[in-house]
Amino acid sequence: MANVKRSPWLLHYDGSSCNGCDIEVLASLTPVYDAERFGVMNTGDPMQADIFLITGGVNTQNKDTVKQLYDQMPRPKVVVAVGVCACTGGIFKDCYNILGGADTVIPVDIYVPGCAARPQAIIDGIVQAVELFEQRSKEHDEMVRNQKKGSEVA
Amino acid sequence: MNMILRVVLYIVLAPIIGGLLEGIDRKISARMQRRVGPPILQPFYDVKKLFKKQVIIVSRSQTFGLIPYFFLMVLTGAMFFAGMDILMCFFVMSTAATALYFAAMVTSSPYATIGANRELIQMMAYEPAVLLTCVGFYLAEGTFNVSEIAASDRTDILFMPGFFVAFVFILTIKMRKSPFDTSTSHHMHQELVKGLTTEMGARNLAIFQVTEWYENVFLMGVVGLYLVNSNPMSIIWAIICIMAVYFLEILIDNTSARMKWQDMMKITWIFTLFTAGVNLLVLMLVK
Amino acid sequence: MTVIPFLILFPFIVAVLMYCIRVNKVRNAIAYISAVILMGGVLWLTAQWLMQGAQVITLTYPTELADHAILAAEIVLMCVVTFLCFKYKKYWISILSIVPTLMMVYVELYGPKVEGMTKIYIDHLSILMCLIVGIIGGLIVIYAVGYMHGYHHHHTGIPDRRYYFFMLLFLFLGAMFGFVLSESLLWIDFFWELTSVCSFLLIGYTKETAAITNSFRALWMNLFGGTILAIGIFYYAFTDGNLALHHLIKEGVLHNAYAVIPIAFIAFAALTKAAQLPFATWLIGAMVAPTPSSALLHSATMVKAGIYVLFRLAPAMKGTSTGTMIAFIGGFTFFVTSVMAIAQSDGKKVLAFSTISNLGLMVACAGMGRPETIWAGVFLMIFHAISKSLLFQDVGATENCLHSRDVEDMHGLLYILPRLAMFMFIGIAGMFLAPFGMLIAKWSAFKASVDSGNIIMVFFIAFGSATTSFYWTKWMGKLVSHTHLTEAKIKDITKKNELISLGIHAFMMVALCALFPILSRIYVDPLLNEMYGHTGQVLPEGLLYLLVVIILIVFLVPFFAYHYSRKQQYNRKLSYMNGVNVGDNKKFVDSFGEEKNLWLSNYYFYKLIGQRKLMVPAQVFSVAALIIMMIIVIGGGAV
Description:
The complex is a heterotrimer. By secondary structure, chain B is mainly α. Chain B contains eleven helices and one strand.
């Protein structure tokens, strides 16, 4: 029953990617790779998502958007940067409008390199993210329990 | 006694059955797409996860819409399995749907509002068929009472095939299946994000999900009612029929593209008018 | 039973007073007092009647004098109408007033003289009507005092003729009392014409172009109905030699050939009064009048007069071709106008269409004429009267605060004007949601139409109730949405007397919902007994469970939800707008990088099912249907 806690729902955001990584992300949901067997769903709604999957670098225009989307996700949450642009800014790094990788605005947990990142790598990243997610869920549960205790004491 | 037992069984088992049905649905869908698909228990994992996440809300009032939605839907099913008036069941169900509509509207978010409005259109589309189904039962059995309908000697589907077809047709809308999945977009139809449920995260979404399971079990119960008669063997037939209908819905879901709501509205009403209407005409004239 | 002449005459006296007193404060005080006296009078009448065992009471006055007075008044009325028609150059309308009046005069002078004829007839139905007219009408008068003050404050262009307005209100109430209590058809005809003329004058109160056009439309349609009524009475008087309404009904129940044609004509006339389809436009046009008069027209008086007549005739229409005609027109109106209501965004227009639509259902109930349908119809009437009156007053009060009555502008009303929004919520919920009586009445009508094998009605109700809940739900959704206006400060300037009236209405609404089964047993069942000699078992068995639902929804669930959510820790998040919200949920960054206000709107489908698109075809169709069916009825009656 390794699957018990596995229900990672993705929010996929395209920063300023060339769409290469996006195609690969979608490809990993197709029958060939079938990420859904791990319970992965692509929701497109931050309120319902657990894993924030970001492709492409962050630029001056979308930095607020990325932050806001990250804020809208309920804890526990994991951020995965897919592709080299999302990791570091990639080949656009020195462009006038690019701030750098996703970690310039939000904390990134898992880096999936590649240009474009391959589906296998993406799925591997997601699986690692799921593990991290489980760990954070436990921490979160712990925290909620402590909070409850705290409020009872108070 | 029997009645209370049935109600308790419904309240306890419906989420389990509903969740399993959804798991099977996802599995079969995956197989239809030549994928492995998630485990059958996946919906339970999802709901468990949702309950454990941090509680987030856009508007506090949303809970005030969702909780009545949940209770009214449970009540609908409970009334049905307790064997009460079927028309009343559907009235309570439409009140539940109204509560859901409020839950989506209170946030005043663009996607949720569009989804909610489309939900309303869906309600308008399926309501005539639902009411006419009740009339069909009444004409076939002379009563609206579910327990009397179930206990009679007749197999209703023989008298009301038209109503049955119409009901299965609107079931596609009620179960939010593909050609008519205009309000929530279960699959990745990103123009609506998640439609009605866009602003529901964590626990709120879990409540919504569980309520959907209750609703699906209730609807499947209505499908079963077409076959159930005084003969206990008929229950097996009913279960087979429910499975067939459920499979059919999955098949439709996976083989059709979404429709515009205008077309949904037109097609549903015309279809209802023809199938249920002709059936009604025949039943009334025979009477 | 001196209270009866008092009830009829007192409003007329007050009306004269209203016209004479030009000091606002004095007049307002008198209006309050008279409204309270009227309500008291109605309650007194009810109490007296209940003490006497709630039996049918008929009163015979030596009414030579009253007859002559009414005759004189009728002629005066004709002169007024003729004068106004000539003043505004609508010459042909005067014919519709002159002809029936002359016919009535002829019947009065040369018609059958029935010795010792009953003039006043009191039974459950007329007491019920009196209660509706008296209490809701009285409350509307109380509301009107405050409302008209604000109205003239805002609409400075309109000459302040409040003395005239209140005169008309009281005149109207008096006419309604006379109408529902009279037994003599001549009296009924007079009061009928009086309500028509009152509504005409009320609609034209502002004297704006639209008001005048609409008021004349209301006038000719109602006078046309009056003419038909007069023809019916004329025919009846000279074939049967009687002028008593109940005599006519008795003959109708026995399928007496004399009765068929008068009943068909009177029922036809009632269709105009109840604003059924070919004649529906007058009620929609009546929206131009100040709100109290629309509330009065829609809920307590006028349209209910048409329904009252049809309920009276219902036993005689059961299973006849007249009944079929009435039921068809009613059902058709119910469906088509509820579709048209979807396309309206003006609050009062939605209310107008929904009134017509609900009246259609009541008319259809009367047309089917079975005890179950009348049971449903009576409840529809009670609930409709209260919740429509509530809604109209509330929309009026909201308009005074918001300066708009558009449903779209009521977005987030619950946060802007919480009191008014709550009242509106109750009123709308009363119109269609599960715990309230309207829905149960609809249930009953639905079941009865299946029982009577009326397939077309089954379809009308099945499809019509879907469209009905659509337009109500979307309005309610607007009220609860989070507001998008932040800058504009809106103050609740609703006057105290308006709130009192609204509060009483809301209370009655909720109380009646809870007392529903009791009301059915102690009042409506005897009413049916009186009409049919028996009652059908109509109270749906699921009702008790619905009452559980009420308790669940109204008390327990919000209570628990509140407690639950108070303890729960939660994080407020921005609503999802693709991550481009600016600060809150009301602004976003558009594609030019500029801030923009969010503006959400409901679906209306103007182009698909608007009034312009559907009204004319519906009218043509219903006129054709009416003509064909009238020919069938008259042909059948003549044979």
